[in-house]
Amino acid sequence: MATLTHPTSKTHLFTKLSLKPKKFSSPSRIRMALQENAPSLAVVGVTGAVGQEFLSVLSDRDFPYRSIKMLASKRSAGKQLTFQDRNYTIEELTEDSFDGVDIALFSAGGSISKHFGPVAVEKGSVVVDNSSAFRMEEGIPLVIPEVNPEAMEGIKVGTGKGALIANPNCSTIICLMAATPLHKHAKVIRMVVSTYQAASGAGAAAMEELELQTREVLEGKPPTCNIFKQQYAFNLFSHNAPILSNGYNEEEMKLVKETRKIWNDMNVKVTATCIRVPVMRAHAESVNLQFEKPIDEYTAKDILKSAPGVVVIDDRASNHFPTPLEVSNKDDVAVGRIRRDVSQDGYKGLDIFVCGDQIRKGAALNAIQIAEMLL
């Protein structure tokens, strides 16, 4: 599942509700994931793009579990899906869904998380939530495992004590995977981020609409605009998140606030401009960094080459740098265009270009890595 092909192929899209049997493992591979002494899992929102990616990542990483509940809305209840060569019936999400569940992976939207997250915690589940519902709540860890694993210190499965852990926004994760190693070396005092965000960030329906619009425009037909309310194919526009009173949209302010919380630095200056671009999957970001201490581009490149979860693609001679296509369905965040900011004095400024798979590292993989730290 979740393998992207040429944009004209239907196999790259996540079909929310059809849920024909999908195999998340190769029959020739010996599976070690199903273990009697492992935790019990629940996947909330299993029919959505991120929910399906949860299953893909769990399978890819042989995450150990003794049982797994597939949870979704009432309209999806009763449908069948296949995971690691076993058939499962999707169950309706209710307040009784979390009895005996050790780890609950949530990706069903903020309102669902706000209602059912505390219910799951009360029943002893550790909730890893992919929505924005709890990210900025005091006392709830906001975690990127490669960046701030210490934030969830003391939270483990098997203690009988529930807890809530928030998965950061996809743009924040992709940005900080690259910026944090440099921040730890020279301390970022100001960061300017411009994002180029794919349709995948708005879910399976947005990906389908981009493909549909592309066909329609090429055929000279008016584009269908149900998700974004304006033409997406062959166009770009300001991110569709609500605009706030300060003129920023919610997506931009998530980058500002979440960076400060994750870095535990309320003084770091962050500004962002978030743009939707007609890319199917994987976000790109231009990041300008101003540092307290000098750092040159060669040192920066060496630091990033050894950073966990980061790959450097920076070939100036052939003009080869990260692209969304190269990182789609990949775990690592790619970084390139590493260069000194010539507008700043000395060696206290850098520009970098970052690409990361929004559904994978920007959502599902980060959540599964958090879950791995609970074991």
TrEMBL record:
Chain's gene name: LOC105123746
Record-given protein name: aspartate-semialdehyde dehydrogenase
Keyword NADP annotated: yes
Organism: Populus euphratica (Euphrates poplar)
UniProt-listed InterPro entries: Asp_semialdehyde_DH, Asp_semialdehyde_DH_beta, NAD(P)-bd_dom_sf, Semialdehyde_DH_NAD-bd, Semialdhyde_DH_dimer_dom
NCBIfam families according to UniProt: asd_B (TIGR01296), PRK14874.1 (NF011456)
The protein's assembly and partners: Homodimer.
E.C. number(s) listed in UniProt: 1.2.1.11
Reaction catalysis annotation: L-aspartate 4-semialdehyde + phosphate + NADP(+) = 4-phospho-L-aspartate + NADPH + H(+)
Broad enzyme group: oxidoreductase
Molecular function, one GO term: aspartate-semialdehyde dehydrogenase activity
Matching Pfam families: Semialdhyde_dh, Semialdhyde_dhC
Family: Belongs to the aspartate-semialdehyde dehydrogenase family.
